[in-house]
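Figure 6 in text form: structure in, sequence out.
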């Protein structure tokens, strides 16, 4: 009897994770121990598993792989493809690259991290982008989300898409303001057999134009939602809250739900870009923001949870559900918290800035994290993901934060919070190892209980 890997299963490995299978249908890797991995290598269409050389316990494991849908019976010499054969990548594992392919933009957003459209970052040349794609493939990065600036302003956008697809790199998300989302773009994506999720900003009914600095921006976003829905693309929205639009949250959620938006994430406008020129005039305090959230939570639940909602770090609930989580409660309140990466997201998702700098996330664009900078244009990506300042940053453990931050280390909530968000810490204290005051407020000002009370009002 002969077995082979199913077509969607690839054998892969990385430094410190040498024995993995990548399953394309779920777009994820499964980590195996060496014994199980070596047994899987026997499923090559050439090895007779009824042979005397195969032990009974090995056959049992093979049967279990078959039940799990990883392998299937086949004829002799019906072998796996070249792409399925084992490949060991010369670096650490990164699940996804979040790539700003340009710093340029067709909008004048007051709060842009990259200060577009002045585009102090500009954009890398077509040739450099092609080289980055080759490096992503060389490092076994199988997922990319494209952002900017506004990624659709690049004349070679579809060439970048084609180059990624030619390397079997999945494009799972495109971030856009929606102005350039049109029939031709969606038709071109569909011709290539892909339907990435679109993440489009929408900053409240009647206030979107004001924050985005362009008349008609709201109408263009709504038109993009309708067009995407018509073509069957998934839509995600991010909304920035401030004193002018805070009253629009409920109506905005209802509108987005009607337009077919699947999920919404809210955050306050941060002190970045030209927003700093407003001198705090429109800023919400953390307490004001959380009180807006508390007021809205029961309304959201009573409305049947019309979409997936993430009130940044405060409350998360999926469409049609009443179960919820509090994202700032990140860990199980045990000492095991210390062994986790300081930012789990950054350990799995690499951000490439428009100038080629590697950063833990896009809000850190323009920050000098402890004087350390790594550029993919200066250092091969395989090296950056093996030994570099960037790798040391994203591999930093929470225990290191506790060593450097005495306030966090002495906090009674430290094993639940884990120090909070590093981008928020930099914003508040200009220190990568500083305190995330937004998370501190949730824990120290009784908001955990207040969230529970708000939920109970709707149940």
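Output sequence:
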């Amino acid at each position: 009897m002969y077995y082979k890997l199913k077509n969607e299963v690839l054998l892969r490995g990385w430094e410190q994770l040498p024995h993995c299978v990548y399953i394309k249908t779920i777009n994820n890797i499964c980590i195996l121990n060496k014994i199980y991995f070596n047994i899987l290598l026997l499923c090559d269409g050439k090895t007779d598993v009824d042979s005397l050389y195969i032990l009974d316990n090995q056959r049992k494991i093979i049967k279990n792989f078959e039940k799990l849908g990883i392998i299937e019976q086949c004829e002799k010499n019906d072998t796996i493809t070249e792409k399925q054969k084992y490949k060991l990548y010369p670096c650490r594992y990164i699940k996804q690259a979040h790539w700003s392919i340009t710093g340029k933009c067709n909008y004048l957003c007051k709060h842009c991290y990259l200060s577009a459209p002045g585009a102090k970052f500009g954009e890398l040349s077509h040739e450099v982008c092609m080289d980055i794609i080759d490096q992503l493939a060389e490092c076994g990065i199988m997922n990319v989300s494209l952002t900017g600036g506004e990624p659709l302003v690049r004349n070679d956008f579809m060439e970048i898409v084609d180059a990624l697809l030619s390397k079997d790199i999945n494009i799972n998300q495109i971030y856009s303001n929606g102005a350039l989302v049109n029939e031709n773009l969606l038709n071109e994506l569909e011709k290539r057999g892909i339907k990435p999720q679109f993440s489009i900003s929408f900053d409240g009914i009647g206030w979107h134009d004001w924050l985005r600095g362009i008349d008609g921006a709201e109408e263009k976003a709504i038109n993009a939602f309708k067009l995407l829905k018509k073509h069957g693309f998934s839509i995600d929205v991010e909304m920035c809250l401030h004193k002018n639009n805070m009253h629009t949250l409920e109506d905005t959620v209802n509108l987005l739900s009607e337009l077919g938006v699947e999920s919404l994430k809210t955050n306050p406008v941060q002190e970045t870009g030209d927003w700093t020129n407003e001198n705090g005039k429109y800023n919400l305090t953390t307490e004001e923001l959380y009180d807006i959230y508390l007021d809205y939570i029961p309304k959201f639940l009573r409305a049947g949870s019309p979409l997936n909602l993430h009130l940044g770090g405060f409350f998360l609930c999926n469409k049609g559900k009443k179960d919820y989580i509090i994202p700032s409660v990140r860990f199980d309140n045990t000492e095991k918290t210390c062994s986790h990466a300081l930012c789990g997201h950054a350990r799995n998702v690499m951000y490439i800035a428009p100038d080629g700098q590697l950063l833990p996330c896009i809000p850190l664009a323009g920050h000098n994290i402890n004087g350390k900078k790594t550029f993919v244009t200066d250092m091969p990506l395989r090296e950056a993901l093996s030994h570099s300042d960037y790798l040391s940053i994203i591999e930093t453990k929470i225990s290191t934060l506790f060593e450097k931050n005495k306030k966090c280390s002495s906090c009674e909530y430290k094993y639940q919070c884990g120090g909070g968000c590093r981008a928020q810490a930099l914003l508040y204290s200009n220190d990568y190892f500083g305190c995330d005051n937004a998370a501190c407020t949730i824990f120290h000002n009784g908001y955990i209980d207040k969230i529970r009370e708000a939920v109970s009002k709707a149940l």
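Caption detail: DSSP finds 18 helices and 17 strands in the chain.
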